[in-house]
Amino acid sequence: MSTATIISEAGPLEPVVSTQEQGSPARFMQAVLRNRKATAGALILLLMVFVAAFPGLIGRDDPQAAIYGQDLGPSWQHLLGTTQLGQDVFSQLIWGTRLTLIVTVVVSAIATVISMIIGVTAAYVGGLTDRSLSLLTDIFLILPTLPLLIVLASYLPPGTVTLILVLTLTSWAFQARQLRSQGLSLRARDFLAAARVRGERTSYIILFEIIPTMTSLIVASFLGLSVFVVGFAAGLQFLGLGNSTELTWGTMLYYAQQGGALEAGNAWWALAPGAAVAVLGAGFALVNYAFDEIGNPALRPVRKRARTTA
Q1: Which of 227, 229, 253 is closest to 240 using CA atoms?
Q2: What is the C-alpha separation between 268 and 109, in angstroms, rounded?
Q3: CA neighbours within 13 Å on the CB side: how many for 249?
Q4: Residue 262 has pLDDT above 90, yes or no
Q5: Angle 215-238/89-125 helices, nearest 10 degrees?
Q6: For the segment 166-207, what is each residue's pLDDT rounded down to a tens digit?
Q7: Which domain range does residue 205 map to?
């Protein structure tokens, strides 16, 4: 393993990790732990994953059981109070984490794969294929997202599958444009010319030669999409366009609005799921914001040099 050390007038700075070392999971975890924003975001996401995986360990009450007093305030028995129907808000918040996280991750993963295939294929193949895929991408880019989401969700049967389909269909285009730009910068590289000389197929070159060099951008695209998806999914469900029988943070917001939670003085019924959406989005955003510093070591010496000079 090789490292290069940046030297400034103030003395040696942090070692810059080589490309091979950056690809190591252990090295990546060390980089995450050294970055405060990435560490905070990773802890938030790990907490959300734990809650989604084991909701019964935290929210012991049945989230759908209307067996308590109506519109009760926070107490030791009900940490966030109860709903208009007498359901425990804290248990609903905990149990709603699972489906919220599943929708966010699945949509972000599928949309990232679609944008990766379309963007990289357009960049490498070029010609008519590039023009056609770029036109398709531009069409989805100029379409107003929220009205399109509302129209699609209104005409399709409500449910998790519909929500995933609608969000995936409307969220891949911007990342595809970014990946196409990156792919265009790689077309003339020697390693791609060598692959063509060896007689490798186009699909092999795209999947095994180009895409591995774009890992940082692809991960950043996934994280950025996750911030978008968690907010828009909750927004659609808040507007009543999801399946109201499924327990998510968005449906909690919908029922809180329908039940007049704020007017009844039951603020936590509405504030708790809204805060949870914000915290989950912040977790993805913090990791995404720090990813440039982790993936591009040159940013760390520049930041440290500026601090040293000051």
Answers
A1: 253
A2: 32
A3: 30
A4: no
A5: 130
A6: 889 888 998 899 889 888 888 878 888 888 888 888 888 888
A7: 36-309
- How many domains are contained in the chain? 1
Which tokens hold the place of 13? Answer: 């700075």
CA 235 to chain centre: 16
Instruction: Tell me the C-alpha distance between 194 and 192, whole Å.
Output: 5
Q: Which of 249, 237, 235, 241 is nearest to 280 (CA)?
A: 249
With respect to residue 210, please indicate whether it lies within any of the assigned structural domains: yes
Query: What per-residue confidence (pLDDT) applies to 46?
Result: 94
**CATH at residue 219:** 1.10.3720.10
Among 134, 222, 106, 211, which residue's Cα sits nearest to residue 175? 222
For residue 9, being part of any structural domain is answered with no
Tokens of 287: 């990791």
DSSP of 6-52: EEETTEEEEEEEPHHHHTSHHHHHHHHHH-HHHHHHHHHHHHHHHHH
Within the chain, how many helices (H) and strands (E) appear?
14, 2
pLDDT tens track for 204-219: 888 888 888 888 788 8
Q: What is the pLDDT of residues 229-239, one digit of tens each?
A: 999 889 888 88
Token digits for 10? 């103030």
What does DSSP assign to residue 55?
G
Residues with Cβ within 8 Å of residue 219, at least 6 apart in sequence: 291, 295
Alpha carbon distance 117, 99 (integer Å): 27
Instruction: Return the H-helix or E-strand segment holding 154.
Output: helix 145-155
